[in-house]
Amino acid sequence: EALKMSEAIMQVIRPFTPADTERFADFLADLSPRSRYFFWPHGYDHATAAELTQPEKLADRSTLRFLAEEEGVMTGYVFLWDWDTPLPWLGIAVRDGYQRRGVGQQMMETMLALAKRHGKRGLKLTTMKDNERAQRLYARCGFMIVGIEQNGEYLLVHRF
Q1: How far, in whole angstroms, is CA 58 from its chain's centroid?
Q2: pLDDT of residue 40
Q3: Are 20 and 14 in contact (CB under 8 A)?
């Protein structure tokens, strides 16, 4: 079931299914070096896509994975790690040709609403200090910088 659809750009955000392996592999392969620099939670190859769309992985309720799609093209990827905690981690990537079109904001708003509905205290994420475009998005969505991680990235939190 789709969580959100925007009339403006017909973006559907829905949980991954085992049938999404190829579209996820295509999404990962299409990320530019710049996008990979900013988004690096795992590999970008077909093996990674196959592993993360296995039914066993998708059944693990500690990590939730969603994709955004428009007319059959995977335009974005968002995950929630440590879903079984009060303050899960959020990770997000938007396909290069779809950046600056509201896809990221839609995914962020959808995940915030999902977390709130499930009684979470908020969401947290990290971002590189030089990822200013993402930081502007996170600020628009209510995230605040609360510290710096050991790897030098900003730690941001959105509390409900």
Answers
A1: 15
A2: 87
A3: no
